[in-house]
Amino acid sequence: MLHGSFELDPENGAYFKDFLQQVIGPRTGGPRFVEKGEKERAQRIIDDPRSTDQIAAESLIEAIKVAAGADPGTIFGRIRPSVKLVVMEAPAPATPSSALEFLGDGFIEGTSNAATAATIDRALCDTGFTPVLFGRDGSVLDVGREQRLFTQPQRVALALRDGGCMWKDCLKPPSFSEAHHLHQWKADGGLTNLEDGILLCSPHHLRLHNEISTGSIQAGGRSSASAKTSGWSHRPPPIPPKPPST
């Protein structure tokens, strides 16, 4: 038998807890389901002869097998529909020095774990977390709009064009990458289109947003840490035009 332990950062910890909730929730007092299909699925989990720990462990291994067998040239959507980032609105400065001054810090729903402004802005790009923005008076100002996310056809095109993370010397394939808005979606009015998208692996994506939040670079600019003197390690080539109909 293999035994072990691990520690996860708040963002990945919330994702992992949500995964476990989906596979063992009916065993641990999770939410009751009202739709017939969900009720039947929950009952199957309750009636499963395996122990709760065994169900959790084997479900995790199955997920790892699926991920390990995935095509490394495919960029996958990071859709996490039940994990929400609760964000408090920050007072808007007269002349903001960075994109992230439009958002205050927040926290991950159901936990006391703080979410930094850089984490929140990265989530707006492509992680699939749903950001819920509250005003200082407690009113809900905005619940994440799905048009901020790149579509699957756009992800395919980005994977073919960029070939993986565009950070200097990073060799992560598209399957390890997220789509970043070159112009910040929230603050700069960045568009979710191919011209405004670039692939970055999760660590470099967060690092880029951290550099934006600390003023190392301006929103929509290029990081000196991530680039040679002239820009990204390899510039995205233009998407070839669609051939004419015959």
From TrEMBL:
Pro residues: bias regions: 235-246
Region described as Disordered: spans on this chain: 214-246
Comp. bias regions, Polar residues: 214-232
InterPro entries: HNH_nuc
Record's protein name: HNH nuclease domain-containing protein
